[in-house]
Amino acid sequence: MASLIEPPFSTSFFSNNSISYSQPPLQFKLLHTNNFSPTPKPKLAQTILLLVQSKHSSLTVCTASIEPPPPPDQEENVSLEVASTTRDRRKIVRVAWEKLLRWSRSLRSKAKTDVLERTNKVVVLGGGSFGTAMASHVAGRKEQMEVNMLVRDSQICQSINENHYNCKYFPKHKLPENVIATTNAKTAFFGADFCLHAVPVQFSSSFLEGVAEYVEPGLPFISLSKGLELNTLRMMSQIIPQTLKNSRQPFVALSGPSFALELMNKLPTAMVVASKDKKLAKAVQQLLASRNLRISTTSDVTGVEIAGALKNVLAIAAGIVEGLDLGNNSMAALVAQGCSEIRWLSTKMGAKSTTISGLSGTGDIMLTCFVSLSRNRTVGVRLGSGETLDDILSSMNQVAEGVSTAGAVIALAQKYKVKMPVLTAVARIIDNELTPQKAVFELMNLPQVEEV
User: Fold this and answer.
1) Which of 147, 281, 288, 318 is disulfide-compatible with 297, CB 3.0–4.6 A?
2) Closest by Cα among 382, 405, 385 to 394
């Protein structure tokens, strides 16, 4: 197949410069075209050979690849296929969501409410922010339930009973009218069905010793406190039964990513209860779970408690990175390393690695390390900014458990022969034996090792 193409291409379109041609027009001769298919199809190119000739130049053979447009009917078929695929995908997603809702309705219809129905009184130990938030939450579950807060501060006690506000921690959040405060331990414990323990770890032993005579042997304790006792390295699951001199005292640990302020504002929250007694864990789940608070259960008490204690120390490290303005790369690397250190120690102590990646582990770590409401992170930020620990602690009206826990964590790590570079550095900074800047230098100069 051959034909002559003779348009007067005398413009600069085919030239490397802008000078118009004065010579006779070029002649283009189509020498050959090659279709790879008898019928042109989309994505099958045609190769065209052109013979270019002029008076003052030699013959040149040019090749060009032209992709023919798809036939109109084929374009229509492709559009229909895309539309069909989109409809199928949406249908799959819709069916999956409907199955999830049916499963949820089925379980809810079988859910028991007997625990909530027969619970008439709950005692809350401690009048701090988290104890107050949980007291408010539990009281909202049932109007006829009496929620007694055992507090030491007479001013807070009066404020709650007369105005239904915790004047120190939540002066703008009204508490339910069935929340009552008292400084009398006998009154608080009398007839209680559950006890929420919200006293800081370092003060728990002395506090419990003072109220032990009023505690019934079968009263379930739900611990909200996170940390390790500094001198004994004990967790709350050990402190409570040993201090009450009752090894069979029912115990549940409550943990997870939860700021007291957001609980008070009834924002969606998820937590986990841990107990070796599965029946008790289910009972506490039923007592606490609501439309804005999801409660999961686990039997891994050690994992939940160790993660809850160590994340506070890691949050101080994260705050130091923020205070030194080391950037996002550093923050991500530090928190990842800290998560590994928590996993190494907790699994050595018998915890499940899945617990560390759950709500009480990764969930609580993310909240405490990255959000400015965190007390422990705030301590770190101020340390990184150059303030002294004494000045920081004297200006705070709440306890940052990570400060006292740091030393206990390192002693525990040595006991189980686990290397914990980041958390050890925090303990050294708190002991004023290492500056934040020096700690960063030392950590960055550790040997390059295989990730485990």
Assistant:
1) 281
2) 382
Tens digits of residue pLDDT in 84-121: 788 888 888 888 999 999 888 888 777 777 899 999 99
In tens, the pLDDT along 133-178 reads 999 999 999 999 999 999 999 999 999 999 999 999 999 999 999 9
Length of the chain: 452
pLDDT-flagged residues of the chain (< 50) = 1-26, 28-61
Count the Cβ atoms, other than its own, within 10 Å of residue 222: 24
Cα–Cα–Cα angle for 165, 168, 174, rounded to 5 degrees? 20
Largest Cα separation within the chain, whole Å, is: 117
Rg of the chain on CA atoms, in Å: 35
Q: CB of 5 within 8 A of CB of 30? A: yes
Question: What gap in Å lies between CA 132 and CA 113, rounded to an integer?
Answer: 24
3-class secondary structure, 380? helix
3 state SS of 52: strand
Structure tokens at 381: 């930020």
Is the pTM value of this prediction over 0.85? no
C-alpha 320/C-alpha 379 separation (Å) is 8
Q: Which of 203, 202, 248 is nearest to 221 (CA)?
A: 248
Question: Phi and psi dihedrals of 100, rounded to 5?
Answer: -60, -45
Best CA proximity match to 313, nearest among 431, 449, 445:
431
**358-375: per-residue pLDDT in tens?**
999 999 999 999 999 999
199, 188 contact by CB (below 8 A): no
pLDDT digits (tens, 9 = 90+) for 64-77: 555 566 666 666 67
Q: Do 133 and 198 meet the contact criterion of CB atoms below 8 Å apart?
A: no
Tokens of 205: 């032993």
Q: Give residue 69's pLDDT.
A: 62
| Residues catalogued as catalytic | 311
Retrieve residue 313's tokens: 């120390």
